[in-house]
Amino acid sequence: MTDPAFTLITGDRTELLGELAIEARAVRTRRIFKGNGVTLIRLALDAGTVLKEHTAAAPILVEVLSGHATMLFGTEAIDMPAGAIIHIEASIPHSVEAITPTQLLLTHTARPAR
């Protein structure tokens, strides 16, 4: 029986890490959940790959599940080892560079209606 008030997205970190493999010289993405007010996206980046500068329409959280990355905000670089989580407000230009093979979890939120 499922309860519409909650959805178990993953049972453990191993399952989440297995959701999207790292591919040589590639940035891969996959939406793993879309619910009321939130979307979860998995990203897998090979070492040396860059997710080019972009913005998000709503606030986001980026968690480094494994590996090591750098978040770039213009000329400011934020070191993001495994376990790091960063909150980024909507419309802030940023890019991501994978220092080692890196797996990220992106939580894309929606602002409440006013």
CATH superfamily: Jelly Rolls
Number of strands: 9
Largest sheet: 5 strands, antiparallel
The average pLDDT score comes to 92
Return residue spans where pLDDT drops below 50 for at least 5 consecutive residues. Answer: none
Q: How far apart lie the N and C ends?
A: 34 Å
CATH-defined architecture: Sandwich
Kindly provide the name of the CATH class. Mainly Beta
Describe the structure.
The structure is a single chain. The protein has 114 residues and is mainly β. The protein has a single domain (13-109), classed as Jelly Rolls, CATH 2.60.120. The protein has one helix spanning 13-17; strands at residues 27-35, 38-45, 50-54, 60-66, 68-73, 76-81, 85-88, 94-98, 102-109. The chain has a five-stranded antiparallel β-sheet. Strand 5 (68-73) and strand 6 (76-81) form a beta hairpin. The longest helix has 5 residues, at 13-17. The protein is globular and about 40 Å long. The mean pLDDT is 92.
Jot down its keywords:
single chain; 114 residues; mainly beta; Jelly Rolls; 5-stranded antiparallel β-sheet; 4-stranded antiparallel β-sheet
List the helices and strands and how they pair.
Layout: H1 13-17, E1 27-35, E2 38-45, E3 50-54, E4 60-66, E5 68-73, E6 76-81, E7 85-88, E8 94-98, E9 102-109
Antiparallel strand pairs: 1-2, 2-9, 3-8, 4-7, 4-9, 5-6, 5-8
